[in-house]
Amino acid sequence: MDHPPQRLPWWEAALLGVLALAVALAAGHLVAGFIASNASPYLAVGNAAIDLTPVELKDFAVRTFGTYDKLVLLSGMALVLVAVSAAAGIASRRRPLPGIVVITMFGLAGLVAVYERPDLPPVALLAPTASLVAGVGTFAGLHRLARTHAAASTNHDSDRAAVSRRTVLLAGAGVAVGAGAAGAGGQLLAGTRDAASSRAAIGRLIPARMAPAIPADADFAKLGTPTFLTANRDFYRVDTALSVPQVRTEDWSLRLHGMVGNEMRYRYTDIRNRLLVERTVTMTCVSNEVGGTYVSTTNFIGVDLADLLRESGIQPGAEQLFSTSVDGWTSGSPLTAALDPSRGAMLAIGMNGEPLPIEHGFPARLVIPGLYGYVSATKWVVDLEVTTWKARQAYWLKRGWAQQAPIKTESRIDAPKGFDTVPAGTVRIAGIAWAQHTGIDRVEVRLDNKTWQTATLSTEVGPNTWRMWWTEFTVTPGTHQVTCRAVDKSGYTQTDQRAGTVPDGATGWHSITFTTR
Ligand SMILES: Nc1nc2c(c(=O)[nH]1)N[C@H]1C(S)=C(S)[C@@H](COP(=O)(O)O)O[C@H]1N2
Ligand SMILES: [Mo]
């Protein structure tokens, strides 16, 4: 019965590799469904890839693909995995070993990635283990079946062969269907453990101290500016989390420790039962380009962060509030800013009356007005350590961004949009400006590099929020350029010097070109 080694047709070998990959991913996804959706090896590897990506590439990805950067990463990973698996299959036309080696390496990568995630319990390692076992098992099993068939058919006894082509195809199809079902099952299971139901159980949050109502003339939305408050679903989103951390309120707690007299641990109900305040804050990302969209405003609801810190008894010499998210991301904020009553830093649990949306940090996040998000706004926050700058280095600081990052005074033109065509005659220009913690004093606008004209400002809501502006020019038919610049309440005029986002935020004036007819 000893057949000479037979080679599988290349396409069959390639298919074997891809099928084994599909089974491995689906098995991992299914097991992760019982534990935590982020234990899925595919997602864990993707998350690890984000943390390992050099900062220039990450910046490029965010600039080029915007919110789709994660989708691009997942699709790119899928393409690479399929290609490598197919190649491993083809390399295994005679013997299964090359395929087994490659699938084992994928499995090990999944194990390492899950192991490295700080938000996952050790039992989560079962998910990549399931991937490894199922992937290798599938590959070896299908390979044996296909080889038996190939051997039988070259011996010209295909009609008596123990394994017919039909059997091989059926086995392959069965495996594919099984993988699909397992993957979908994992997805469904993970859904039941996700934070959505926990969030839904909270209901509306009513602060004891409401923010003042937003005056009607606080925005010029009718002229093309954003609405003063950003709807939760439109609030810009920036984070390194490939899959949104799912934290249920009953599982959440916040540890406050380090250079403090009494270490504290708060449960969700402890926070909810404290005096809830509401503050209107405009948040901005350091990755916002001049004219960019990473700026939004909301009514945050939460507790006063300075109160929590003071109650813990901060020791002399402490400089940094080092915060950690459930997914391991970290941020370092100056303690002076967190404690400054005029800034009103918060541990926030709500936005615009609702519990925080899951992608914006549910159950709780930090908000320190006036600082870029990466040094002030940790989402899914679970740990606050009072420390020194020397003792701890946060995620983006280690990757070349600045330690201190106050938001820079900026302004943006929203209407007309760049390259719009509008009727000649009187043209209205409208936009926004922000200088959080300082306040906007004036916005100046000029047409075609002529003299600056002072714009009409919206009613001020507070120094920590954006301000809208508008003005108008008489414009002849043709192509024109309009430029804006803000002056803040410290007397500083927004610089025209262009700087990129790294290391501490972009600068320069926003200009757009439009045509009149
Ligand atoms: N856990 C976690 N928190 C995070 C980040 C992150 O990557 N992970 N990104 C920060 C950055 S860079 C910004 S600008 C703000 C954005 O908050 P948003 O997504 O709610 O707008 O969150 C901050 N908090
Ligand atoms: Mo950011």
Characteristic key phrases:
single chain; 517 residues; alpha+beta; Sulfite Oxidase, Chain A, domain 2; Immunoglobulin-like; 5-stranded mixed β-sheet; 33% helix; binds ligand MTE
Provide a quick synopsis of the model.
This protein has helices spanning 10-35, 41-52, 55-65, 69-90, 97-116, 126-154, 165-193, 196-200, 268-272, 305-312, 335-339, and strands at 253-258, 264-267, 277-284, 295-304, 320-325, 330-334, 346-351, 354-355, 365-367, 381-387, 410-415, 421-422, 425-434, 440-447, 453-454, 456-457, 467-475, 478-488, 510-516.
Explained architecture:
The chain has 517 residues and is an alpha+beta fold. The protein has 3 domains: 10-191, no CATH class; 221-399, Oxidoreductase, molybdopterin-binding domain (Sulfite Oxidase, Chain A, domain 2), CATH 3.90.420; 410-516, Sandwich (Immunoglobulin-like), CATH 2.60.40. Helix content is 33%, strand content 22%. The protein has 11 helices and 19 strands. It has helices spanning 10-35, 41-52, 55-65, 69-90, 97-116, 126-154, 165-193, 196-200, 268-272, 305-312, 335-339, and strands at residues 253-258, 264-267, 277-284, 295-304, 320-325, 330-334, 346-351, 354-355, 365-367, 381-387, 410-415, 421-422, 425-434, 440-447, 453-454, 456-457, 467-475, 478-488, 510-516. The protein has a 5-stranded mixed sheet. Strands 3, 4, 7, 8 and 9 form a 5-stranded antiparallel sheet that branches. The radius of gyration is 28 Å and the shape is globular. Bound molecules: ligand MTE and molybdenum atom (MO). Residues 238, 285-287, 372-374 line the site of molybdenum atom (MO). Residues 415-499 form the Moybdenum cofactor oxidoreductase dimerisation domain.
